[in-house]
Write a structure and sequence with these properties.
heterodimer, A: D-amino Acid Aminotransferase, Chain A, domain 1, B: alpha+beta, 27 strands
């Protein structure tokens, strides 16, 4: 009986000792007689992989399946390949994997890149299961087809999981902007919240709602009637409107405003509960009912003719615009509506990413309702030239259409109007919905109106979902919250030393000048001398120090074994002090120093009295390294800190001079 | 301002109503506290005048009852002797208007029911009903005490503020581009993300725990089986809360067994599909207030426990409790009163009582299971004795979540000991904290807190002064010339006159209702500077509608009904902050200027008024206007 067992599955952070990417690590062991691995098994493994490669993955991403020198190696290879390929099939862009036999033969240390811990873990688990299945079937009775079916199911399931953890494009572009500026970020565990900036520089954002977006402004935009009042007072164009809480009030308002009218729930998003172009009291009644599902108050507005534009304003400036419309198909007397929709769904812009159906026409209730109102259903066949719409409101994420509108195509006054609307409600990042028959003419000439102001607008569509533009967007968005001239660097000192004496002295010196010091070691962590875990065992990670808004300077002890197990749990630190060589299980580990060096932004202070350390420092070529005698390590570090952070630390060395 | 028409006051049937009105006067007076605020009766002799007098006093009195410290009223008969014009002070417009409606309704009620004789009981009943309505209206539409303390801080710094039109919770301060919007005590710099974190108790606890701050062990569950499982794991007693909720709704603390757990779970799940199960922390409930990262005060909240004496019913004891001063600081707002709500009734029932029971002497009865003040709990200010470690803990908690004005709810059985010694835990962090009960609700402390809160939003050295130029003249020529002189590409000027409103180059469409009052220019976030061409008519009809402006240019004397009215100039003089330019070529204006003593006044010939003003602007607002005088010289 031959099988594999997998142990110690654990995630490694981006900076780790095995690779330059984050991934899942595990120990794979071949159990049983090598001779029992049959050619059938190898063939089956190869076919499964081939299927995975060719059916689910675009050509440029496919793996080259090389033949392996022996069966042992082959199994390890296949293990990695399956884990990588299944992630690729789930739309994750990964490629690196490594496998190495360790001291015990048949024991393989395996590393497979991942984008997300959960996905990596699941991929490894699945690979293990698949290989076990194949190895458990020496006679080859189990049909390839069955295996393939279960594989396909697994791929579909992992795709869903991946879609669930992957970040929206807008968020990614904002994070990219942070990374370019070497500003650390993370996803707050178990939430959709993101943090950027260590220690006292800590800021949040969620979706496209940035750190300094004011809550009062976001609340305000939820109240359509109040927003309208403010816009009107500022001289910005809105439709005549009123609020009704009963059908009677609505009818009176509609009479006063004059049909046709629009009904919207007072607070609500994405066109939910909105009815346009209501011509009489009957229409009004059903519209009020519809709106009533979302809010007990409704806004009654004069219906304005025009095209629907979304003008996106960041930090008070217009950055882009799109024109949105309801998707309309034209019948040909032969194909039914579902088929016509499928053709629309093949449009390239709707399929920028494999498996991404966000902008597809889907069989959602509002689409079905819309079809029914035109006397159709998904199976009906419209006659030649007949035009059928898929929605009442031009909502792109519900299958609508859009067109990029460049700034030159918008009248200057309309641009100013949008910028002022965002300023009036006080939003940093705003999506202004603007209805006009001609965006090249100023709003007062066309009777155009601002229909809504949205916080947290999606801006992926602007500029044709092009990556470069999206990145530019992300940068502008990030800068409204974190201006380019702001220094977001926190002094973070990584310490490699045997005892705690050196770090203890450094912490004391820093506290003397009144700084809040966060200290972390494997055994003990504290902020301003208050322990993180008072009850005893320190199970905290450096996150408790680095992502702590009270910390002004962080001192982190390096634990080589921990880095081997988990990777370095931070990507950036300002200074590194190396007193002696780190050891892993009694063996010196200069690779830990290499890793730390790649994370340092300012200076590395090296103990030249330690031969091993001295040798290492000489062997790397880095202008960040400076050599000092052991007894001067502390002074040298404090000097470097004051030089690197003059505002914060100008008194540090002064304090020392007193003692 | 109000105008009424009296009909039929020369007949004999005016006696009855007049007696009724005097009676009302007295009844209303009785309800005014403190007693020194009561209106002194100074009734005129003439019947018609008397009616108008009582009309006015009732408006003033009702406002005093609901909490507006007003007193001024004036009335004047018009030439026809039938119409009367009145001026009635108000604190806020909405309650002021409602007070007028109240008076009108009262008179109508009296003339319908009290002509021959007056049923005083009925009258009293009518008045009580009206008073409650007015009180409720006042509470609903005027700023809470905490908000007032923030607005007061703005006023002290001469920063203008207003309530957003048609809104009861939003306020704005700072003219033009300096504007900021608050939502009650949610100041404008409060980030949306931080506030959302506080809404999610599970996320808050996770984040606090990661930072080493003490939270109770918790689990988020969706079924009662999961609830039981977790409770068995951590051990009873436990607390059950809906994931999202405020003011203790749906919360059951100190659950000791599985049976009670089921009931509590059912109760909590009514409010949210996710429920939090937490290990119960033994102790009292404290609210630690942290403003801008610094601890500013603490109160202890506890369940109200009453002691029987064998004589009084529970209802009666509660009435006595409700007379405690701190429960009555928000005029007419019963929010800190112990009210007869179902939750309290339930609680009494469980202890074997109802509202009318007379408990035995020495027996102790709890009035609720949660100590929330809005549900009738009791508050005690903690002046000192909060252990420094707990202070640091609260400050860290606020920083972790990121709220600038935070109410940190902390449970411990001894606040004088550090949290790691007592096992105290942070239960919640609240944005938009109420702080009207801090320091026993005393005004001076609350105002101090308001000042701190305001300074977080508007630092003491922030420049909040918008250039606002008021021009008093017969025609718009001077004002428009000034506008042309100061406008630039980057500078948007708001212009308001009786004839037109402009924001930059855009003319607002008054026909549609936009730009019809001076506020649309002053409170417009796009403007860098404002020019107002003042019209006496507008001031006469509506009052000035602004409290502060920077520069005044007086070209001609304003006229009211054809006669010069220097009072308008005096009003403007009172509130200008920088300079007053007088046209010395106009005799009337010159005379007035010489008669008042003000070091802000300077004189210029008519043709130099513009130049002088521009020079003044470039000195007073150098960043915006450094180049304008150069422009003129070039021309």
């Amino acid at each position: 009986m031959i099988s594999i067992s997998v142990a110690s599955i654990r995630p490694l952070s981006r900076l780790n000792l095995i690779s330059s990417v984050p991934g899942t690590f595990c120990l794979m062991t071949l159990v049983g007689e090598r001779g029992e691995i049959t050619a059938e098994m190898m063939k089956k493994l190869h076919s499964v992989l081939h299927h995975l490669n060719s059916e689910n993955i675009p050509t440029e991403e496919q793996l080259v399946l090389q033949p392996q020198s022996n069966n042992d190696r082959a199994v390890a290879f296949y293990f990695c390949a399956v884990a990588i390929l299944i992630q690729k099939a789930a739309n994750s862009s990964v490629s690196t994997f490594k496998y190495e036999e360790n001291k015990k033969p048949g024991n393989w240390e395996v590393f497979v890149e991942h984008e997300h811990d959960t996905i990596g873990y699941l991929a490894a688990q699945f690979s293990c299961k698949l290989i076990r299945q194949i190895l458990a079937d020496p006679s080859g009775e189990m049909k390839l087809a069955e295996l393939i079916t279960s594989l396909e199911n697994q791929v579909a399931w992992l795709k869903q999981r991946y879609a669930g953890v992957t970040l929206p494009k807008e968020v990614r572009s904002i994070l990219k902007a942070a990374e370019k500026r070497h500003i650390p970020w993370r996803n707050v565990p178990k939430s959709s919240l993101f943090q950027y900036g260590y220690g006292r520089h800590l800021n949040f954002f969620r979706g496209t709602i940035l750190a300094n977006e004011r809550h009062s402004s976001v609340l305000l935009t939820n109240d359509k009637a109040l927003t309208n009042r403010l816009l009107h007072e500022a001289g910005l164009p809105i439709a005549q409107s009123g609020v009704a809480t009963t059908l009677k009030q609505a009818a009176i308002l509609a009479e006063k405003i004059g049909y046709p009218v629009v009904v919207k729930p007072l607070s609500g998003m994405r066109g939910n509960g909105v009815t346009l172009s209501i011509r009489d009291e009957n229409g009004l009644t059903s519209a009020i009912k519809k709106a009533g599902r979302y809010d007990h108050s409704a806004l009654i507005e004069k219906h304005t003719e025009g095209n629907d534009f979304r003008l996106t304003v960041f930090g008070g400036k217009l950055v882009g615009a799109i024109k949105r419309s309801v998707t309309i198909v034209e019948g040909d007397g032969q194909r039914n509506i579902l088929e016509l929709a499928e053709e629309v769904n093949r449009e390239p812009w709707r399929n920028k990413h494999v498996g991404d159906t966000k902008y597809h026409i889907k069989k959602i209730s509002v689409a079905t309702e819309c079809l029914e109102s035109q006397g159709h259903n998904w199976e009906s066949v419209p006659v030649v030239g007949e035009r059928v719409a898929f929605n009442f409101v031009p909502n792109v994420s519900e299958g609508g259409c859009y067109e990029t509108i460049w700034k030159e195509m918008i009248h200057r006054e309309n641009i100013k109007m949008a910028e002022r609307a965002a300023k009036t409600v006080g939003l940093q990042v705003a999506g202004i919905d603007f209805l006009t028959t001609d965006i090249l003419k100023p709003y007062w000439e066309t009777g155009a109106i601002i229909c809504e102001v949205n916080a947290q607008p999606a801006f992926e569509l602007v500029f044709e979902r092009d990556q470069e533009y999206l990145d530019e967007f992300g940068r502008i968005a990030f800068e409204t919250s974190c201006p380019p001239d702001v220094d977001m660097t926190l002094p973070v000192v990584s310490m490699v030393s045997d005892g705690k004496e050196l770090s203890g002295n450094i912490v004391t010196a820093l506290q003397k000048i009144g700084l809040v010091v966060g200290y972390w070691s494997q055994e003990f962590a504290s902020v301003d001398d208050v322990p993180i875990r008072p009850e005893g065992k320190n199970n905290s990670s450096v996150s408790s120090i680095l992502w702590n808004g009270s910390v002004e300077v962080a001192v982190l002890e390096v634990n080589a074994s921990r880095i081997q197990k988990k990777g370095l749990e931070y990507n950036i630190c300002s200074h590194l002090v190396v007193e002696n060589m780190p050891m892993i299980e009694g063996v010196k580990a200069p690779e830990v120093l290499d890793l730390l060096l790649s994370a340092v932004t300012h200076k590395v202070i090296v103990n030249k009295d330690n031969l091993k350390v001295f040798a290492w420092a000489n062997s790397v070529c880095s202008d960040k390294i400076s050599f000092t005698a052991k007894e001067n390590l502390e002074t040298e570090l404090l000097k470097e800190l004051s030089a690197g952070f003059p505002d914060l630390l100008s008194n540090v060395t002064g304090g020392l001079a007193d003692t | 301002m109000s105008r009424i028409k009296l009909e039929g006051t020369d007949g004999n049937d005016v006696e009855g109503p007049l007696r009724a009105m005097e009676h009302c006067f007295n009844l209303l007076n009785e309800r005014i506290f403190p007693e020194e605020m009561r209106t002194q009766l100074e009734a005129p002799k003439d019947a018609a005048k008397l009616i108008v007098y009582f009309y006015c006093t009732s408006i003033i009195q009702i406002q005093k009852i609901i909490g507006s410290p007003v007193s001024i009223f004036k009335y004047n008969a018009l030439r026809d002797g039938i119409h009367w014009d009145m001026f009635l002070e108000y604190e806020f417009e909405n309650p002021g208007r409602r007070a007028v409606a109240f008076a009108f309704g009262l008179i109508q009620h009296i003339t319908e029911n009290c002509v021959q004789s007056c049923n005083t009981e009925e009258l009293l009943e009518y008045l009580e009903k009206q008073i409650s309505k007015q009180k409720a209206g006042y509470v609903a539409s005027t700023p809470k005490l905490e908000v007032r303390s923030i607005l007061l801080a703005a006023e002290k710094r001469n920063i203008p503020w207003r309530q957003l039109p048609g809104s009861w919770q939003y306020y704005q301060y700072g003219y033009g581009k300096y504007q900021n919007i608050l939502c009650e005590t949610l100041i404008d710099v409060e980030g949306h993300n931080a506030v959302k974190i506080t809404d999610d108790k599970a996320l808050t606890s996770t984040m606090l725990s990661e930072m080493g701050l003490p939270v109770a062990r918790f689990s988020r569950v969706k079924t009662k089986e999961q609830a039981k499982e977790f409770s068995n794991k951590v051990g009873y007693p436990v607390v059950v809360k809906p994931l999202v909720g405020m003011q203790g709704t749906g919360v059951t603390p100190n659950i000791k067994n599985a049976l009670d757990l089921e009931v509590a779970y059912a109760h909590a799940s009514k409010y949210h599909s996710s429920v939090l199960i937490e290990k119960h922390t033994v102790g009292d409930d404290y609210r630690l207030l942290v403003f801008g990262g610094k601890f500013v005060g603490a109160i202890k909240r506890s369940i109200t426990i009453i002691e029987g004496d064998g004589k009084r019913s529970i209802s009666t004891i509660i009435e006595e409790i409700n007379s405690q001063p701190w429960r009555n600081r928000s005029f007419g707002n019963p929010k800190y009163q112990v009210r007869k709500i179902p939750a309290i009734e339930e609680c009494l029932k469980l202890q074997g009582y109802d509202w009318n029971s007379v408990p035995d002497a020495g027996s102790k009865i709890s009035l609720h299971v949660v100590p929330n003040i809005s549900q009738g709990g009791t508050v005690e200010t903690i002046w000192k004795d909060v252990h420094p470690a707990n202070i640091v803990m609260a400050e860290r908690a606020a920083k972790t979540v990121g709220v600038k004005l935070a109410g940190v709810d902390y449970i411990t059985d001894d606040i004088t000991k550090p949290y790691w010694e007592t096992g105290g835990t942070i239960c919640e962090v609240n944005a938009k904290p109420a702080y009207d009960l801090m320091f026993e609700g005393m005004d001076k402390y609350r105002n101090e807190l308001g000042k701190l809160a305001f300074e977080i939003s508007c630092p003491p050295n922030a420049n909040m002064s918008l250039p606002v130029i008021v021009v008093v003249s017969k025609n718009e020529k001077l004002g428009l010339e000034i506008k042309d002189a100061i406008k630039k590409d980057e500078l948007t000027v708001g212009y308001f006159s009786p004839n037109q409103t402009m924001i930059g180059e855009v003319v607002l469409d008054r026909a549609s209702g936009s730009g019809t009052n001076v506020g649309s220019v002053l409170w417009n976030s796009a403007v860098d500077a404002v020019i107002i061409h003042e019209s006496e008519k507008r001031i006469q009809r509506k009052g000035l509608e602004y409290n502060i402006f920077s520069h005044l240019v007086i070209e001609e004397m304003p006229l009211v009904n054809g006669r010069p009215e220097p009072k308008i100039l005096s009003v403007l003089l009172d509130i200008v902050t920088h300079t007053i330019l007088i046209n010395k070529d106009n005799m009337e204006v010159l005379k007035w200027a010489k008669s008042v003593s003000s070091n802000k006044i300077s004189f210029a010939k008519k043709e130099n008024l513009q130049m002088q003003l521009l020079k003044g602007l470039s000195t007073d607002f150098p960043e915006q206007f450094s180049n304008i005088t150069k422009k003129l010289v070039e021309v």
